[in-house]
Amino acid sequence: xxxxxxxxxxxxxxxxxxxxxxxxxxxxxxxxxxxxxxxxxxxxxxxxxxxxxxxxxxxxxxxxxxxxxxxxxxxxxxxxxxxxxxxxxxxxxxxxxxxxxxxxxxxxxxxxxxxxxxxxxxxxxxxxxxxxxxxxxxxxxxxxxxxxxxxxxxxxxxxxxxxxxxxxxxxxxxxxxxxxxxxxxxxxxxxxxxxxxxxxxxxxxxxxxxxxxxxxxxxxxxxxxxxxxxxxxxxxxxxxxxxxxxxxxxxxxxxxxxxxxxxxxxxxxxxxxxxxxxxxxxxxxxxxxxxxxxxxxxxxxxxxxxxxxxxxxxxxxxxxxxxxxxx
Amino acid sequence: xxxxxxxxxxxxxxxxxxxxxxxxxxxxxxxxxxxxxxxxxxxxxxxxxxxxxxxxxxxxxxxxxxxxxxxxxxxxxxxxxxxxxxxxxxxxxxxxxxxxxxxxxxxxxxxxxxxxxxxxxxxxxxxxxxxxxxxxxxxxxxxxxxxxxxxxxxxxxxxxxxxxxxxxxxxxxxxxxxxxxxxxxxxxxxxxxxxxxxxxxxxxxxxxxxxxxxxxxxxxxxxxxxxxxxxxxxxxxxxxxxxxxxxxxxxxxxxxxxxxxxxxxxxxxxxxxxxxxxxxxxxxxxxxxxxxxxxxxxxxxxxxxxxxxxxxxxxxxxxxxxxxxxxxxxxxxxxxxxxxxxxxxxxxxxxxxxxxxxxxxxxxxxxxxxxxxxxxxxxxxxxxxxxxxxxxxxxxxxxxxxxxxxxxxxxxxxxxxxxxxxxxxxxxxxxxxxxxxxxxxxxxxxxxxxxxxxxxxxxxxxxxxxxxxxxxxxxxxxxxxxxxxxxxx
Lengths: 327, 489
Description:
The complex is a heterodimer.
Chain A: E1 6-9, E2 16-20, E3 23-30, H1 33-47, H2 50-56, H3 58-61, H4 75-84, H5 99-114, E4 119-124, E5 127-132, E6 137-145, E7 148-158, E8 165-169, E9 183-188, H6 191-204, E10 213-217, H7 218-221, E11 231-236, H8 241-260, E12 266-271, E13 274-278, H9 282-285, E14 290-292, H10 308-313, E15 324-326
Antiparallel strand pairs in A: 1-2, 2-3, 3-4, 4-5, 5-8, 6-7, 6-15, 7-14, 8-9, 9-12, 10-11, 12-13
Helix pairs in contact in A: 1-5, 4-5, 4-6, 5-6, 6-8
Chain B: E1 7-8, E2 17-18, E3 29-32, E4 35-38, E5 42-46, E6 75-77, E7 94-100, E8 103-114, E9 117-124, E10 135-138, E11 141-150, E12 153-159, H1 161-166, H2 169-183, E13 188-192, E14 197-200, E15 207-208, E16 211-212, H3 221-232, E17 238-242, E18 247-249, H4 254-259, E19 267-268, E20 271-274, E21 277-279, E22 300-301, E23 313-318, E24 324-329, E25 335-338, H5 342-353, E26 360-368, H6 370-374, H7 380-388, E27 393-396, E28 399-400, E29 402-403, E30 409-414, E31 424-426, E32 430-440, H8 441-446, E33 455-456, H9 457-461, E34 466-470, H10 482-488
Parallel strand pairs in B: 5-34, 7-33, 17-23
Antiparallel strand pairs in B: 1-2, 3-4, 5-6, 7-8, 8-32, 9-12, 9-26, 10-11, 10-13, 11-12, 13-14, 14-15, 15-16, 17-18, 18-21, 19-22, 20-21, 23-24, 24-25, 26-30, 27-28, 27-32, 29-30, 31-32
């Protein structure tokens, strides 16, 4: 039995919910009423074929990235391959690491081509593509762990900054991770790039050989996982302060490298309540800032909306906070 | 690629192979013991006659009419996964109206964050687990203490605000994890200072120092004599009930005397406490009646020749009925084992039947604080009064609760009556537990409820994202009439 693409407005009447198989998008456009309407119609029309397009090339997209990359034909698939291409030479990654961001970008692009919008976002389970017209901005909350909803920081993004993509990765999220980060949130030019980079950095936050970390072959958990025989993190036991610093440092090195190569703008690495931040230059600091809310954990539910629909579709699966507040 | 036990999900073209207990890429479809099921965060309890699988398979949604006349909504929204508005002073996430027997009823559904909470654990065992008030540790951290023993069981009091937030960060985290696991009906290893290490899991037998407890004894050996003396009278001349605590002897016991059981000249080892009651007939162990006895005759001395007689019938049995042997004395007054007569096998079976399985039981205890109550009404104390006056019923994931008398709303709930995965936690650390307040719409208005936020049940049931469960048939239906509600208290 197939239960295919669902397209509907959420109860608040503002946001569009697009759902098909593992893809779950929350979309919101801002602008004139007619423009929003046109954008949503275009998004819905584009969305219904997305999953089939991806599935038709799924075996190729599950292959490890290498220079040149597999020749795929779909526009989203090509974007996925391009996003992971910079990493294939020195680490393990497959185009699937960028699928959420690539889908978000595609829907966002469809909307901005179809209509004139002041702002818009497409949130694919925490991997977010943004559109910011002149003078516009978004505030994005960051959630440490999907199973313990509490904000550890917020980032303000405005139109003068180049960031149009946000992604979060961690071992507690929906996808498997090779590392032990609770959450790595990345700001990059585009969502697919952010998605790939967050995966790579989260994999690097690690303590190889640490006895307290339980790792299981990905294949034993999900027989068709693109990670195959690689060991994915299932449980992280007690870590000393030194352990936490060492693991974060390993991730920090990678994040700095990616920032210096221009692959990301900034990253926030979170492990056991400790945060490391990369890529904030003094001149960026005022505009592009992770406001740390460390040691002030408080539960957030229905953040940004009183709608029950939101808690119905998003809460336990998204790694980053799913909602965006206009700032 | 496909593993033997993985199933292929055909809900979408990704066609995931899903291993048992795992979900597919979407996190919405899962392999539940070989069956493809849909799982979603928000739990809706469907009233059904049988419990069956806790998650309704998505292909089998049609429900047969059970033939009964419907007296109230057959669906109750639990607070599991509802979220909370804490610490905001604003209405609870879900305030739902439905009509029950013609009366409009409101259920306020929220998840409470409980720093003031803990569990009371009852462990059915006669074994000494550790001295009263001694500290109970999990992963080396103090998480509670041994409290006063109860009949046939040892009691632990775990959690509470001092362990959760009053000690070190690690003590709080470990306490929170211990409580969560116990409430989730997972096994937890606890070590008692100067005592035993015990594995506790709600609804399962305790494992004390590596040995699983099977049954609670029916009573001590002496009590067993008292209970069964009448059933033995006339069918056997002497009965010894072997017990590590007090071994009973029928002919010497008060119960035997009352019935006029003749003296048999039996001579026991061990220390006689009062007539027919013996301490320390052997060492503790895992054989007969919690002793180390393999041959029950080893606790007897030779029968007194002047009193005993040839063909004297002797039954020896343990306090659980698991061990028994039947003897008759020969001409030299020596016991010779014989087959148990059918007239006695019934009483041995009865002892066994009266031994309940040894279990660990876990009651969650929490207090609903000001801000949680504020999510229900603008005037929180009125909610307390309304609960006191039995106008408002509290349920925890749809399960009945006992509300402790006195101030505040402090309640206890048997975690085994709640749906699975009903609890969560926040890093404060504190436990997150579902809580539902059900009352008449008119009463809700009177206590200052958020009438603007009341919405009909139907609006919640539409659409996606609901986890439908069959109601636990042992629980009273949360929306049944107030009369049964009061009797529940």
